Amino acid sequence: VVTYAETARRAEVRFAVQTRVDGGRPRLQAEASGRWNDLPVKGRAEGDEVLQLRNEDQPYAFELDGRIGGTAIAANGSIVRPREPQRADLRIELAGSSLGEWHRIAGVGLPDTPPYKTEGRLRFDGIRWTYEDFKAVVGRSDLGGRVAFERRAPRSLLSGELVSSSLDLADFGPVIGKARPAAKSAVPATNAKKTPAAASAASAPSSDGQRRVLPQQRFDADKWGTLDAEVHFVGQEVRN
């Protein structure tokens, strides 16, 4: 059992490691548990033999399945120098209660959202992480395309091209200062004929601003100082 502690990220994770032979070839198995930035961590991984980790020029092939906080992660592929990645090529699946949790996991200032799930290809070229050919569902919205993340000073950069066949702005409310609209209350049916004044009042904007074009809620700017973004978006259908 190995304990890994990193004070800067408030991490303390315990690993149980063993080697097994599969078809005459040694394989490394590991289980992890602990906390990362105050989030509970639990997972399992299997990869090439441990001596392969010493070969810093060859990709190390592995697969893992785990959870950090409310985020489930599954990945398989290869990485060069796992401790300090130089290159990587992975197929990943992610699912969680909110994209905003990645601010605590990796310092990426994504907005708070409804539950999401996504799968695609993740590559690292030594400078930037690129998530491509992916499909995602966030709340009632779908997304696809390519995004790239690059750490740089004074702020990291998020760039890419996104496409959605159906986007509900309520799913990304914290970004634009708009809350999900409340459910409409039932209105009793009536046979009484409306007067012109009553009809006009019924079509006027309500005091809570539900029919206004611009949002009335405050913007959530807590993460604005952590990330620059340059993203091209095409929405085939945009609601709310």
How would you characterize this protein structure?
- The protein has 240 residues and is mainly beta.
- Helices cover 7% and strands 50% of the residues.
- It is built from three helices and 14 strands.
- It has helices at 102-106, 173-176, 196-203, and strands spanning 2-6, 11-22, 25-36, 39-47, 60-68, 71-80, 87-96, 116-124, 128-138, 141-150, 156-164, 167-168, 227-235, 238-239.
- The strands form two sheets. Strands 1-2-3-4-5-6-7-8-9-10-11-13 form a twelve-stranded mixed sheet, with no helix packed on it.
- A hairpin with a 3-residue loop joins strand 8 (116-124) and strand 9 (128-138).
- The longest helix is centred in the C-terminal third of the chain and has 8 residues, at 196-203.
- It starts with a strand and ends with a strand.
Question: Runs with pLDDT <50, length 5+?
Answer: 181-206
Backbone CA Rg: 24 Å
Number of strands: 14
How are the strands of the biggest sheet laid out side by side?
1-2-3-4-5-6-7-8-9-10-11-13
Largest sheet: 12 strands, mixed
From the spread of the alpha carbons, the general shape counts as elongated
Beta-strand portion reads over 45%
Question: How many angstroms does the end-to-end distance come to?
Answer: 52 Å
Q: Overall pLDDT, averaged?
A: 80
